[in-house]
Amino acid sequence: MSSTPKKEYLDQKYHAQDRDIDWNISYEEWLEIWLISGMYKNRGREKGNYQMCRRYDEGAYSPTNCYIATVEQNQKERHKIPEGET
């Protein structure tokens, strides 16, 4: 049985909550971000796949704090320091 977008949303929400990350994004907002990116079918955790990321890997999952990037881009972003901070 294949996964549905709603199940994938709920899985990501569960994993965020399991990691104590706030989840402030509705299913409709989550799906819109993925569809606009054009990378929904390339989602995953493997090299070359795409993920929904949080800016600087901080804050909640929310429409204003999320973007779609490759696994590799997400790993690089995680280690960047936001401008104006040391």
Write the layout of secondary structure elements.
Layout: H1 5-18, H2 27-37, E1 50-54, E2 66-70, H3 71-78
Antiparallel strand pairs: 1-2
The largest pleated sheet is described as: 2 strands, antiparallel
User: What sequence of helices (H) and strands (E) makes up the elements?
Assistant: HHEEH
Distance between the termini: 48 Å
Cα-atom radius of gyration: 13 Å
Low-confidence region ranges: none
Average pLDDT taken over every residue: 90
- The number of distinct helices, counting runs of at least 4 residues, comes to 3
User: What sort of overall outline do the alpha carbons produce when their principal axes are compared?
Assistant: globular
Which percent range describes the beta-strand content? 5-15%
Strand order of the largest sheet: 1-2
The helix content, as a percent range, equals: 25-40%
* Total beta strands: 2
Q: Pairing-aware structural class of the strands and helices?
A: alpha+beta
